[in-house]
TrEMBL record:
The modification N6-(pyridoxal phosphate)lysine is found at residue 320. PANTHER family: GROUP II PYRIDOXAL-5-PHOSPHATE DECARBOXYLASE, MIP05841P. GO terms for biological process: amino acid metabolic process; carboxylic acid metabolic process. GO terms for molecular function: carboxy-lyase activity; pyridoxal phosphate binding. Residues 53-63 have a biased composition (Polar residues). This is Glutamate or tyrosine decarboxylase. The keyword Lyase applies. It comes from the Bacteria. Residues 52-74 are annotated as: Disordered. Its cofactor is pyridoxal 5'-phosphate. Belongs to the group II decarboxylase family. Keywords: Decarboxylase, Lyase, Pyridoxal phosphate.
Length: 512
């Protein structure tokens, strides 16, 4: 039975005529709150350098700060909430926009990106379908084209913005599977494939590849981890031998992943050589450039990135070296039809077909998401604000600072410089009289540098992360930070040495 339907007269007037509600904010109030918020954000950004890089509070202390109130039954005025919450965030966060934040690969965010996000969520375009996001879809298409131009591949590459590097690599992985695995797997699934599908990458490839192999049905045993050469690049000789061996054993090789800027030390694989092998064996050539590929914009580095324009797909992360606020990743595909072949579906409840005589691009057909936010806007705006030349300057300066840190570590008697590629520097602390006998004390030096890293991260003066290079536990600085300058390098060296001495003293006392 249908439930009773109210007649027009029975509907309470207040409900339809004057929808007083707890969520809308009237214009004058919105202005007041907005201006206040922008004022506090401007003060925050202006004073970021003077703040500790991160809070020293422990998880339980943070829980106490937050309190453990149950879900609110009734509402609270928005102004009160915003004031409290700006304090909460500005006083208890890690600031990757701080000039001495050089950990992992997380950049300082372009301030314009914050304003772009506010604008994007105000319009609230759903960039899943053109009809739901008319200009936003066109802006995302242009952003994708500009990103292709930025890294020096044909602007005919198509693609999509996603949440980050992992998702960008997943999106490409699935396109590769569609393109190179037997066509029947779309219906029959992977377990019915007669040949074992295999993928190839160097052993320094980021963990996304394992997640992808698990999630998309190949299993981790399908990953062939190819050893690296002495320069830490994927060894193409071993790659070719492995591919041949697999074919002989009845496997079906799908794709090779080349990395353009590995997470630990910034090494770029020999992309041109990998591309040639992919052509020879009819494999999909994917480049994980999540961190490093924006450096291809620098004319002097173009040789390092030779082969990029041959890639079937590329993952890159505007939220890393293009300084976009989180989240922004991007998948570029040479022939975007592979994305549509992989992700498109046409349910009867979608009326998204083309405008007469024109093709409207629907981004839900290009990736995993259905409803999608307008993350392209912040990238699109910042690309215009900075321009190609501005980015060449910023990225070059990051690289120069990374080299300067290596040099200063080299010249310090208590530091050992380990490696430097793109904008990543690895080094470690070595107590004064240890240098000559460092070889015999590796275990202690590893323990010391690990403890030192933890002390540094808790200290709030500088934020570095770690890398293991040739079995040495290293401190690692990655420069994707337009606020860091030369003076920070000297100060970071001083902080590391000061803390290194303290940590060493503490460890040698507990040892005795
Ligand atoms: C950062 C990174 C990833 C993962 O990217 P997220 O944005 O963190 O998901 C993958 N590969 C490489 C080479 C990276 O540097």
């Amino acid at each position: 039975m249908n439930r009773a339907i109210l007649t027009h007269e029975e509907i309470p007037k207040s409900m339809i005529e004057n929808r007083e509600n707890p969520i809308a904010i009237k214009k004058e109030e919105f202005k007041k709150l907005g201006y206040q918020l922008i004022d506090s954000i401007a003060d925050f950004i202006d004073s970021i350098e003077e703040r500790p890089v991160t809070t020293t509070k422990t998880p339980s202390e943070l829980q106490k700060t937050l309190g453990d109130a149950p879900l609110p039954t009734n509402g609270t005025p928005a102004g009160e909430l915003l004031t409290k919450t700006t304090d909460l965030l500005f006083n208890n966060s890690l600031f990757n926009g701080h000039p001495k934040f050089l950990g992992y690969i997380t950049s300082s965010a372009a301030p314009l990106g914050a304003l772009a996000d506010l604008l994007a969520s105000s319009v609230n375009a759903n960039v899943g379908a053109h009809i739901l996001s008319p200009i936003a879809t066109e802006i995302e298409k242009q952003t994708v084209k500009w990103l292709a131009e930025f890294i020096g591949v044909s602007p005919n590459y198509g693609g999509i913005l996603v949440s980050g590097g992992n998702m960008a690599n997943f999106t490409a992985f699935l396109a590769a599977r569609t393109a190179k695995a037997p066509k029947s797997i779309k219906e029959d699934g992977i377990s019915n494939a007669s040949e074992k599908l295999t993928v190839y990458c160097s052993k320094s490839t980021h963990t996304w590849i394992e997640k992808a192999a698990i999630l998309f049905g190949l299993g981790t045993k399908s990953i062939r981890w190819i050893p690296t050469t002495s320069s830490n690049q994927l060894d193409e000789k071993i790659l070719e031998e492995t591919i041949k061996e697999d074919i002989k054993n009845g496997c079906k090789p799908l794709m090779v992943v080349g990395t353009a800027g590995d997470v630990s030390t910034g090494v770029v694989d020999n992309l041109a050589a990998i591309s040639n092998l992919c052509k020879k064996y009819d494999l999909w050539f994917h480049i994980d450039g999540a961190y490093g590929i924006p450096a291809a914009v620098i004319p002097e580095l173009q040789r390092m990135f030779e082969g990029v324009s041959e890639a079937d797909s590329i993952a890159l992360d505007p939220h890393k070296w293009l300084y976009s606020p989180l989240e922004a990743g991007c998948t570029l595909v040479k022939d975007p039809q592979h994305l549509i072949d992989t992700f498109s579906s046409h349910p009867e409840y979608y009326n998204f077909s083309s405008v007469e005589g024109e093709v409207a691009q629907n981004f839900y057909e290009f990736g995993l998401q259905n409803s999608r936010g307008f993350r392209a806007l912040k990238v699109w705006l910042t690309l215009q604000q900075v321009g190609r030349n501005g980015y060449i300057k910023l990225i070059n300066e990051d690289i120069e600072l990374s080299k300067l840190l290596l040099l200063q570590a080299e010249n310090h008697e208590e530091l050992e410089a380990i490696a430097q590629n793109l904008s990543i520097t690895t080094f470690r602390y070595i107590p004064k009289h240890y240098k000559s006998s460092a070889g015999q004390k590796e275990d202690y030096l590893n323990a010391l540098n690990e403890a030192l890293l933890n002390d540094l991260q808790m200290g709030g003066e500088v934020f570095l992360s770690n890398a293991i290079v040739n079995e040495k536990y290293c401190l690692r600085a990655c420069f994707v930070n337009f606020r860091t300058s030369q003076k920070d390098i000297g100060e970071i060296i001083a902080i590391v040495v000061k803390e290194g001495r303290k940590t060493h003293e503490r460890l040698s006392q507990t040892k005795d």
